[in-house]
Amino acid sequence: MTSPVRLGVNIDHVATVRNARGGVHPDPVRAAREALAAGADGITAHLREDRRHITDPDIEALSLLCAEAGRPLNLEMAVTDEMLAIALRHRPHAACLVPERREEVTTEGGLAVACHEARIAPVAKALAGAGIRVSLFIEPAPEQVDAAHAVGAQVVEFHTGRYCHLSGDDRAVEFERLQTAATRAFDLGLEVHAGHGLDYVTAADMLAIAEVRELNIGHFLIGEALFVGLTTAVHRMRAAMEAAA
């Protein structure tokens, strides 16, 4: 049985390894092709302002690959004029607006939408006007969900990093926070996704939240691929999701 929850595979860190030495190997586009062949429902890539992993040629090649495969490309992007222009040029299936700080190692939290609606709403409107599905990567907090709805998002993706790093009662409390936010989003007509820090166990945990329709997972799968190969890592993630479903 195929899990009704979609799996998006983020291939950013294949590019991280490539860029550590320069050259063309390993190729994130090759990784995307393998992930799709292994059962991923789509590909996610974050084109950062400093181009620390995914590059502009990568986005062009990934756009072509996903179009040929008939699978969605989810472009993660900062709320900037430069990134908006790139998204409008390539027109991916979805654009996920994320926070971005040059000094961070990885995304450290959700996008602060509440109190910043005036900055985010025009970008969301321009993306939607081009036929791009608008997603906002946010904390599972009611005020952020409401603000995401107010600026015209169609999707919210909840930052699950905090959940993944907690344990015991603290993790249970964070799960309830995710559940409450997911219910609120669903009631507002928003599709619910989740991502950041998920592994075989915590990804399965997210499927206990009935409103979740998609998981986006990158770092863990690319790390696992070093030991078992990307095809096997994706197969195991799908199996974990199906077992939980």
The radius of gyration computed from the alpha-carbon positions, rounded to a whole number of angstroms, is 17 Å
Spatial gap, N to C terminus: 9 Å
Estimated helix fraction: 40-55%
Q: Main beta sheet, described? A: 8 strands, parallel, barrel
Report mean pLDDT, rounded to a whole number. Answer: 95
Count every beta strand, where a strand is a DSSP E run of 2 or more residues: 8
**Helices and strands, in N-to-C order?**
EHHEHEHEHEHEHHEHEHH
Q: Pairing-aware structural class of the strands and helices?
A: alpha/beta
How many helices does DSSP assign? 11
Estimate the global geometry from the Cα principal axes. globular
- Walk across the major sheet and give the strand order: 1-2-3-4-5-6-7-8
Which regions have little confidence, pLDDT < 50, spanning 5+ residues? none
Q: How much of the residues is beta strand, in percent? A: 15-25%
List the helices and strands and how they pair.
Blueprint: E1 6-10, H1 12-21, H2 28-38, E2 42-46, H3 56-69, E3 73-77, H4 81-90, E4 94-97, H5 117-129, E5 133-138, H6 142-150, E6 155-159, H7 161-165, H8 168-187, E7 191-195, H9 200-206, E8 212-217, H10 219-228, H11 230-244
Parallel strand pairs: 1-2, 1-8, 2-3, 3-4, 4-5, 5-6, 6-7, 7-8
Helix pairs in contact: 2-3, 2-11, 6-8, 9-11, 10-11
Mind explaining what this structure looks like?
There is one protein chain. The protein is an alpha/beta fold and 245 residues long. The protein contains eleven helices and eight strands. α6 links the parallel β5 and β6. α2 packs parallel to α3. The longest helix is centred in the last third of the chain and has 20 residues. The relative contact order is 0.15.
